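Me: Here is a favour to ask of a fellow structure person. Could you put it straight underneath, so I can go through it closely?

Assistant:
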Amino acid sequence: MKNFLLFTFSISLSFCSFANDADTTLFVESEGKMNGLIADVLTNKNRNVREEASLELQSNLETTLNLNGSFNYSFSKLEGVSIQQPEDKSFRIFTWQLYLDENHYQYRGFIQTKEGKVYKLKDNSDDMRTVEFSVLKPENWYGALYYNIVPFNHQGQKMYMLFGYDAIDFYNKRKLLEVLCFDESGKPKFGKDVIEIKDAFARKRKVKRFLLEYSSSVNVTLNYSKEQDLIIYDHLIYGQPIKSGGPSNVPDGSYCGLKLSKEGIWEYVDKVHKDDPTKILVDATSYEKMIGNEQKRKKKKDIFGRSD
């Protein structure tokens, strides 16, 4: 009898091992197929091919994420898709970028929770007018490519600060802070007025998400520093780094920050680092100054447009 039980137990273990191997094989095969699709999304010169590949990638990834055991598969070889997961491993976010033309980008993605729920993220940023003050759902998401997650608590609720990138168009890019939390039913929602910023009139106010728009000709920092326990970002000024591109925002060499308070508010911190004059990219501090310079230049020309 004991031998029979041992034999049965051995068969059960072998079957479980085979099932796990089969599941893993399925994920590996799916991952390989999706790698081919994301390669087309990111590199194919034909717009129709890029769009079709992105839709097929979306369909394949959704199907795969809904399979049992998929949350435990890392998808570490899925290149071109950003996969971000917080330290508590309660969920993870998949996002990728689709280039349509030089003035139009789209983003797609999914949130997968450890309970096995999968939420498709639909980019609705083109139709948004009050981006900084809107509470959003997965079906009307502000599309972005996420590159970091920082958990925090606000009024006893666990929340997550998402750091994202939005290419926008040829001349301008954006980085953003997005607040993610989950409602009582476990459904994700985006936006919470826990971010304190200083506006163009030097007034402090709270917003639900923070967007940092800047010229595509420069690099801009927006990330969390563990060493300083701060979110640090470039302070921007209005300049004209690209002659044909018109005015845009560029770094002036100084940095601002956000510090998490005991109440769970990310409070504005001015001048995190001292100014570095060697990093100032343009000699312009305001739109009015540039307009004034342009008017002076025009006054120096005669009626035929010739310089005096």
Observations:
- The helical segments are 2-43, 47-65, 287-299.
